[in-house]
Write a structure and sequence with these properties.
two-stranded antiparallel ribbon, 15 helices, 70% helix, 326 residues, mainly alpha, flat
């Protein structure tokens, strides 16, 4: 899952030190809050489905906050590790670890350019956020949920960011699994275990991630190429990318329908309708590429976010309607 925010450009305090406001805002931006929002969109409906209703407000708040802290930790550590390529890519060069801001010097030194956040500060923040997530989920929900949140952080940092991102075009296929963990965390927080249905939700997001991210990567292909990151649109022909997007899209829609016996027929109808909508746009993307016209990949990218939000909204609503289950 992806997102970029405007850089922190506020000047530092006149004393020559960065203001607390600048530091706080910059650390917040490193967490990629837009991505966290999408992760929470999948967590809450999952908790409702696991509970067959609405869990206690306390458990909801604890799990959502714990999940947000875990995602913030992973994203901050990702920014720390990838600061070299973030400085190269137009889409990410505004992030606080690489964007230059005016720092007022002492005495006659005059203003000087510097980053709003130092690498060591970002690393420390990422570790603290992860520890806070672990303690909150473990003490206030259960330790299985905490362990799954930790697994998501470790997977995103070590498997995707350090292990796959710069080495293989399958980076987002395998590494994208990190974004699937919130549904497992939500299910475990409610039930204290993981069921096959939680695994189905995991698979939905797993197959959703490549079409979502490859659409974005088509748009920013030159960025990834300049940074020597082998995203699929960099190393494969546009037609092959479009074919793979379509393949994963069909797999995603098929998996959403597998949940129907548990979530109910109303959910199944919603999943079928939303899936058809997604597939139409995926076919349009392939058709535009085949015709040699502008592929307009951001249409599919933005639609994918709306699609996932509506799909999990259907999960949430139907979880409150026990009378319609088969």
């Amino acid at each position: 899952m992806t997102g970029a925010l405007a850089p922190a450009t506020e000047p530092a305090a006149s004393s020559g030190r960065r203001s607390a406001r600048l530091i706080a805002r910059s650390l917040f931006l490193l967490t990629k809050p837009r991505i966290i929002e999408l992760l929470l969109v999948t967590t809450l409906p999952t908790m409702m489905l696991a509970d067959r209703g609405l869990p206690s407000l306390r458990l909801l708040l604890v799990t959502l906050l714990g999940g947000a802290l875990a995602a913030a930790s992973a994203n901050t550590l990702n920014c720390y590790i990838d600061r070299d390529i973030d400085a190269v890519m137009r889409r990410t060069r505004g992030r606080p670890l690489v964007a230059r801001v005016q720092v007022t010097g002492h005495g006659d030194a005059g203003p000087a350019a510097g980053t709003a956040i130092k690498p060591g500060e970002a690393l420390f923040s990422g570790v603290v956020l992860g520890a806070a997530s672990t303690l909150l989920l473990g003490l206030a929900a259960n330790w299985l949920a905490a362990a799954l949140a930790d697994a998501a952080i470790l997977f995103y940092v070590f498997i995707y960011t350090l292990g796959l991102k710069r080495r293989t075009a399958s980076n987002i296929v395998i590494g994208g699994a990190a974004g699937c963990f919130p549904v497992l965390v939500g299910w475990a927080a409610v039930t204290g275990r993981i069921s096959v249905w939680a695994g189905v939700l995991f698979a939905v997001i797993f197959f959703w991630t490549p079409p979502h991210f490859w659409a974005l990567a088509i748009k920013f292909r030159d960025d990834y190429a300049a940074a020597n990151v082998p995203m699929l649109p960099v190393v494969a022909t546009p037609s092959r990318v479009a074919r793979k997007i379509l393949l994963y899209s069909y797999a995603m829609v098929g998996v959403t329908l597998v949940l129907t016996p548990y979530a109910g027929w109303i959910y199944g109808c919603c999943a079928a309708g939303l899936g058809g909508w997604f597939l139409v746009e995926a076919h349009r993307l392939r058709g535009r590429i085949a015709a040699g016209v502008s592929p307009a990949p951001m249409r599919l990218f933005h639609l994918s976010i709306v699609y996932l939000t509506l799909l999990f909204a259907a999960v949430a609503v139907t979880a409150l309607l026990p009378w319609h289950h088969w």
